[in-house]
Write a structure and sequence with these properties.
The protein contains 9 helices and 18 strands. By secondary structure, the chain is of the alpha+beta class. The chain has 3 domains: about 110 residues, OB fold (Dihydrolipoamide Acetyltransferase, E2P) (Beta Barrel); about 90 residues, E3-binding domain (Dihydrolipoamide Transferase), CATH 4.10.320.10; about 190 residues, Chloramphenicol Acetyltransferase. The strands form 5 sheets. The protein has a 6-stranded mixed beta sheet with strand order 9-18-17-16-12-15. A hairpin with a 4-residue loop joins strand 4 and strand 5. The longest helix has 17 residues.
Amino acid sequence: MHEILLPKMGNSVEEAEIVKWFKKEGDAVETGDPLFSIQTDKAEVECESTASGILRKILVPEGVEVPVLTVVALVGDADEALPDNMGAPSASAPAAQVSAPIAGPAAAAPAAPVSPGTGATGKSPVSPRARKAAEALGINPATLSGSGVGGRVMEQDVLASARSGGAVKITPTARRMAENAGLSVAQLSGTGIGGKITKADIARSLEQGIAQAAPEAKEGIRTVPLSPMRRIIADRMCASKYSAPHYYITVEVDMSAAKNFRAANRGFKVSYNDLVLFATARALRSFPAVNARWCGDFIEELSEVNLGMAVALPTGLIVPVIRNAHLLSLEGLSSTAKALAEKAQTGKLLPDDYQGNSFTVSNLGAFGVDQFTAIINQPDSAILAVGQMKDRAVVIDGGIHIRPVMKLTLSSDHRVIDGAVAAQFMSHLKSILEEGAF
């Protein structure tokens, strides 16, 4: 009998919710077949079977959130006896008690790797301000889940713990949701492992509060349930808008040189979005202050340009990441961008495909949008909003000319990027595009 585990989806993913089972008990499965999909804190991901045989038992039903490496199903022969003491994980049972141990290679689950920046004991690092606040409030910071980079415990984590009584077990995502909604978690009961409050518990509490206060539904009004992805988008965007002081800078770019470059036969097809991505990666190399992150007590300026590109899905929005974009040729970047967009559209992205971004580009030009402002995709400190390229009348040397013009708007976090720096960055990006320096 083979154990099917909830896979480890990168160091930052500690738990996930099973959204859908593609097979039912009694169905035949092959290694590599899509078996179920999970909702992490960022995206929905399909998980493949790690064994061939008959799906004998589903241990975790749809809609239940469990830690990674939990046994979620058993695959074996049709006449093979099931182990004793099976059952879905309860709020008080650890993942190891989901099913009885089974002899064989699958029984030994690999140990979860320690997050970067943690010590040998696996404890999260603590910022100086967080340590000082914890000492003043009598809270042990080692018991807290950090919201900073690499799981670093920040001052806001300590204050949130103090507001909730200090002894409440709650996931970082659930804590942020509660804080954004002004919800006290002291009286909530958690349904997670060990009674931990999860994002599902927060969402349920908010729904109950809305239901109690909502007027009777009127004829002609359709109620649309929130998908897990929509909840996450709402949580992340609210957190970004509330915590980061946004400001905006817009430039108009003459795309004549880019248009001529694209029209030339170069052996591969390149889109205008590819040209913007390539130019952005080059500009970020010259402006490390824009390719940076706010970390509470310090600012990180990153040497690698990991370029996020927003992709619209029927269920919401996801941002796959082009890693080391500054090292790629235009053809390499274009190929990588197309592959990531296709994986996003087909639900094949893995957490490593959409984590670690340092700057994001969002393009709504294909939808006929001239100009817009975007909300920063944290942990980035800036995001570039790209409008459509459109023929416009412009004045050049006293004469009126028709030029293909594109409007670019940079949203910046003023804690990290000053206005003059943002203006210089946009001027440099504009020069690259207008000179056709690809």
